[in-house]
């Protein structure tokens, strides 16, 4: 049996939730992306060094856009509040292995938007799109062991802890252990996400 998958490159898939709009990042988002990615506390566990110049934020936006043209493509959404159009973070599916029906997720949120369920809301929409359009069976998240917020977020979405990867990451001049968490399609019953 052949599984049909959608090529993510032709048209950017905008998504909506009750409070959020997930949309393509543009150069106009450079100030907000810089603000998020230059916040030392907010980006403590993100997995890359802090941005120090706004040009780096524009480069990051261009990198996310280029993901869609890679051999193992990805899609990175800007997360904005519907009420005011303010960009509060990003989330994405990347390292898509079509043959293995798997990919990895990544995300970050401005500290001013923490604690009210925005990321969970965005990830539900993004994961549903991935399962529906990419024929995914497995989605992985690599999370720093001390990142309690992120660990709780993925656990609430049905991700299972699968193990610790020693010194798998490197940022802020140090090697970092990461935990592997994974979600299987069979563990994704949208009805349980209340």
UniProtKB/TrEMBL annotation:
PROSITE patterns: GNAT (PS51186). Residues 20-190 form the N-acetyltransferase domain. Its EC number is 2.3.1.267. Keywords: Acyltransferase, Transferase. One of its GO terms (cellular component) is cytoplasm. GO terms for molecular function: protein-N-terminal-alanine acetyltransferase activity. PANTHER family: GNAT FAMILY, PUTATIVE (AFU_ORTHOLOGUE AFUA_3G00765)-RELATED-RELATED, RIBOSOMAL-PROTEIN-ALANINE ACETYLTRANSFERASE. This is Ribosomal-protein-alanine N-acetyltransferase. It comes from Niveibacterium umoris.
């Amino acid at each position: 049996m052949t599984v049909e998958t959608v090529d993510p490159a032709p048209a950017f898939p905008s998504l909506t939730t009750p409070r959020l709009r997930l949309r393509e990042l543009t150069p106009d988002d450079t100030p907000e992306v810089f603000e998020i990615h230059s916040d030392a506390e907010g980006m403590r566990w993100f997995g890359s060094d802090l941005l120090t110049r706004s040009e780096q934020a524009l480069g990051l936006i261009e990198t996310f856009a280029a993901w869609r043209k890679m051999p193992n493509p990805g899609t990175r959404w800007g997360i904005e509040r519907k009420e005011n159009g303010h960009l509060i973070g990003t989330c994405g599916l990347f390292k898509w292995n079509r043959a293995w029906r798997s990919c990895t997720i990544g995300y970050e949120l401005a500290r001013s938007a923490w604690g009210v369920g925005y990321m969970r809301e965005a990830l539900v929409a993004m994961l549903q799109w991935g399962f529906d359009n990419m024929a995914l069976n497995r989605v992985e998240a690599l999370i720093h062991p001390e990142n309690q917020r992120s660990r709780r977020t993925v656990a609430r979405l049905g991700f299972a802890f699968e193990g610790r990867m020693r010194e798998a990451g490197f940022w802020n001049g140090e090697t970092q252990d990461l935990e592997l968490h994974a979600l299987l399609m069979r563990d994704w019953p949208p009805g349980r996400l209340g």
